[in-house]
Design goal:
By secondary structure, this protein is an alpha/beta fold. Helix content is about 20%, strand content about 30%.
Length: about 400
């Protein structure tokens, strides 16, 4: 079979661009994408591929994303309108770019791929998102690792940029930790995928499409509900299990979700928490959460399964975690730990059918080593003992 390779060139690149950090650092680069000024928490991701999935991950809402891999955009962007048989986007994790801005070292101004429909700069332009290239992302990442994530302004313009004016606006911008994200990322109404007789409810605090797809692969109908769905609303669908999804921001800003999670635990409904969902389950069970210095964002984060003493490579994107010292006052036990810094990466309830992981078992992008976590949920639903694994 002969495959045609599409080639497209950048059309919205080489503008004026500046990245201004809250510590006063000003970095000059070349703007691309949409001309505007945005403010957000500056973070970095160490993944080598998957910028389409990464940029559409709702967990990046409110953030300016730095990609450490030096060359970005060479394979362009696929068609956002393509759906799978369940009506889920084939190549994107949500229906739009969620990050407020993009920072790269080198933008590939020529994109080539069989599945290409547009270039990266064209995609950003269409979605009104600014990007900047020509930045020393290695040095920037070192700064964030040493000093921690910080607020920043990203400016793309067709004329010279007034740095002092932007600095004043940055000083007055709302901090990431104070923002309320659920109304931005969560569904406003129920969405149903499939027509199977048995359902799993997904409480949407910024769910990635790949999570829904993996649940569908288990053989269940998926009912996606808003972040503040009550336990009565959840139980009205007679679900076999519940998934609390990933998402952005401080988990303590999801009080309704925490309350529902408490009741899921009390009623012993098979439940899986992922990323933000894991933190919410931890809070519901009496644990505490905290903000990490610079977070875990990448596709090669190694985690140790304490049940079988095996290390798995995981995909991650989070800035908050569960305080390990607080687990002692809960009915949870450690399941996974991070091999780099020993942070909590997974917990299991000692009596109830409740499990949670801080990493992304659905990957997208990243390795599929931990897709079996979804099978763990199915085991809980079928009456198996997940604590043996």
């Amino acid at each position: 079979m002969r495959v045609t390779i599409s080639i497209k060139k950048a059309q919205f690149a080489n503008k004026y661009g500046k990245l201004i950090l809250s510590d006063g650092t000003v970095l000059d680069g070349k703007g691309f994408g949409y001309q505007k000024t945005v403010f957000g928490e500056l973070v970095f991701n160490t993944g080598m591929v998957g910028y389409t999935e990464t940029l559409t991950d709702p967990s990046y809402a409110g953030q300016i994303l730095t990609l450490t891999y030096p060359l970005i955009g060479n394979y362009g962007v696929p068609d956002p309108s393509l759906m799978d048989k369940s009506g889920i986007s084939q190549f994107f994790e949500s229906d739009k770019i969620q990050a407020r801005g993009l920072v790269v070292h080198e933008l590939s101004e020529v994109a080539s791929h069989w599945n290409l429909t547009m270039t990266l700069d064209e995609w950003l332009y269409n979605e009104k998102v600014p990007g900047i290239s020509g930045i020393d992302t290695r040095e920037l990442t070192k700064k964030l690792r040493i000093g921690g994530v910080m607020m920043a302004a990203l400016v793309v313009s067709d004329s010279e940029i007034d740095v002092e004016s932007i600095k004043k606006q940055l000083a007055e911008a709302k901090s990431y930790s104070s923002e309320e994200f659920m109304d931005q990322v969560s569904t406003k109404e129920e969405h149903i995928y499939g027509n199977e007789s048995e359902s799993i409810v997904v409480i949407d605090t910024g769910v990635k499409n790949a999570i829904i797809r993996n649940i569908r692969d288990l053989g269940y109908r998926v009912v996606k509900l808003p972040w503040n769905a009550t336990i009565e609303k959840v139980l009205s669908y007679n679900p076999k299990g519940v998934v609390l999804s990933n998402g952005p921001g401080d988990p303590e800003k999801c009080p309704q979700t925490i309350q529902t999670a408490k009741q899921l635990i009390e009623k012993n409904i098979p439940t899986l928490g992922i990323c933000l969902g894991a933190q919410i389950i931890g809070l519901a069970g009496g644990a505490e959460t905290y903000k990490l210095k610079y977070g875990h964002r990448g596709q090669n984060k190694s985690c140790l399964n304490l049940k079988n003493n095996q290390v798995y490579v995981t995909s991650q994107n989070h800035g908050y975690g569960i305080n390990p010292d607080s687990l002692g006052k809960t009915d949870f036990e450690l399941w996974f730990t991070n091999t780099d810094d020993n942070t909590v990466e997974g917990i299991k309830h000692k009596q109830k059918k409740v499990i949670a992981v801080q990493f992304h078992p659905e990957a997208s992008p990243g390795p599929y080593d931990c897709k079996y976590v979804f099978e763990e949920l199915k085991s809980l639903i079928k009456g198996g003992d997940s604590n043996k694994k």
